[in-house]
Amino acid sequence: MDSAPKVVGIVAEYDPFHLGHKKQVLEAKQYADYVVCIISCAFSQRGSAHMFSTHTRAHMALASGADLVLGLPYSFGCAQANRFAMGGVSALNSLGVVTHLCFGVEEELLPVLGSATDAIKSKEYDKLFVESLSGGVSSAKAHGIALSQLINSEDSNSLNAPNFILGLCYTKALQDIKSDIVPLPISRQGDYHKGNDISAPSASIIRKKLLTGDTDFLKTALPPESYGIAIKAYNEGYYHKPQALDYALIAKILSSNSEELTNTPEISEGLEYRIMDCALSANSRDTLISLIKTKRYPYTRIDRALSHILVGLTNENCPYKPSYVRLLGFRNSAAPLLSAISKDMPLISRPARNKDLIMKEDMFSEQLWQIGAGECPKRAYEEQVVII
To answer: In this structure, how many other beta carbons lie within 10 angstroms of the beta carbon of residue 342?
Structure first.
């Protein structure tokens, strides 16, 4: 490229790509020459497998305005907020071309984002967080309590808002790695997870409606470009069925010992024994999580831990930063951007079967996704880079 363009990065999931995502991409394009999206692949940040495939979601993003879509390694894509953010931010930073990071934050919390970011880096925050956690509350609740005391907020619950927590993690990650990328927070309006009759429904509500066969709702919630891609996949049955891997998960737990489970990310403090015990009385993933769940072990932590057990992720295979990303798709017009990306961050487009040991968990998770969609596992290696 002749001159250094503005490139906005977005860390996302797009399961599916809805109107809120379209709004963010359009806002990002007001600042940038290119928009680069990096997404979690087969499994979501919250734990379970995505409904739509990795390449289907990349296609939706490209059709709706993104210029380049990359995939996070499994251990970062299916991870707690701080690791998810560090994976996305450090990968975008390593590309050497991203100038801004765009993310949505609840509108009323935008004014305190800066002070909150400073607060969570303090020793006082760590002390207050541990004190709150020792009271038996979840990590998210302990975070809200500690942060509210440091920034003199009376509403600790609002500080637990998922997008605000991610926003904090993004800005902290940028500071931790001393990145020159400029944060570009935008307001996210509305309570996206409350009710169905709203103008901008969340991805979780859209998936729930679609699983009931309500394709009309899908049409109103997605941009026309991504709707065509999503409805085609749905009509062809090419989506992950929610309970498809439940028996495989329970069998995997029953065949594991406590040492193996202890070496699994997000499993500690005796949680391995609780998982093994509860698996004997469960006939589904949802039932298993409900049996394991306590104030100390919230749903999402358990959900992620169960996916790690199924995929076989170990603590040793969780590096601090990604050493590669997957090239999922790009626009032809973004060819100059691709050529400018630093060679220090490999873009892997076609993993070779049984050869890329560094991608072992990535590709096994993709194979599991394909099984859950009723496909042969080998299809995970047959997916093509999306080019439009």
So the answer is: 11
Q: Residue 120: which of 70, 175, 80, 65 has the closest Cα?
A: 175
Backbone angles phi, psi at 48, to 5 degrees: -80, 170
Instruction: Judge contact between 284 and 306, C-beta under 8 A.
Output: no
What is the C-alpha to C-alpha distance for residues 194 and 200, in angstroms, rounded to an integer?
Answer: 11
Query: Which tokens hold the place of 184?
Result: 């570009």
The count of other CB atoms within 10 Å of the CB of residue 98 is 27
- First CA to last CA distance, the chain: 20
- Burial profile 119-137: b = 16 or more Cβ within 10 angstroms, e = fewer: bbeeeebeebbeebbeeeb
Q: What is the pLDDT of residue 37?
A: 98
- The whole-number pLDDT of residue 295 equals 81
- The SS3 assignment for 273 reads helix
Could you identify the residue written with the tokens 């991610």?
166
For residue 346, is the peptide bond before it cis, meaning its omega torsion is within 30 degrees of 0? Answer: no
Percent of the chain residues past pLDDT 90, beyond the cut? 78
Per the CB < 8 A criterion, the answer to whether 239 and 48 are in contact is no
> Are 61 and 14 within 8 A, CB to CB?
yes
- Contact (Cβ atoms closer than 8 angstroms) between residue 8 and residue 184: yes
Letter for the amino acid at 212? Answer: T
d(CA 312, CA 318): 12
